[in-house]
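Batch manifest, entry 17 of 40.
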Amino acid sequence: MSILQVIYWLVPVLAMMTCLLMVLEIILLVNLKRKAVHLHKRKKRDNKKKQMKLKQLILYLLVGLLLLSGLSMGLFYVRTNQLVKEDKKIVIESHNIITDLEKEIQLMEDKKVEQADFEKTMATIGSIMATKGLHKASDFYPEKNQQLLNRYFNSVNELGILLSNDVNSLYDNQKRVDELKSDIKKVSQYEEKVNKKYRINKKATSKGAGV
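Output type: structure tokens
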């Protein structure tokens, strides 16, 4: 077989192989493109999912922060403006016993009570006040509020001790009674500050308060 014949025979074969290779290359490129598009779409979907999860996480964090802020503000309000049950009870009982003290003094000045009864009542009131005044404000409050309450409780305690020591020198002794009234007024001023801060209902009554 001559070279020309070989070339003549190889040309269509090579042409067919070239076409086949081109077709295969085109198919491969199409497949690669499809895979690339698929991967791109998949990656895009994955990115969207990640973005969605991130947005949800940010939303949850914001909601959590808002809830924590709300709780924090609520707790601060309660700590600043509300009395715990035991402290409120002592404040009301102290108010009631001081009211009883003022009434008893008025009875004595109006000559409506005997000395023995008056002194017995004064001793009882003094003892109750001294005991109530030993109470310390809860550490639930901010320090400033604790100090306010403790000044009031201390004043009640001091007045109770003073009253207990002066029981026998009050009856028909206007000078000592006037001094006692002055001391009561000082305690009442502390009470007014507590009442102004916490808006305590002075008409409230508490079991065990008063005599």
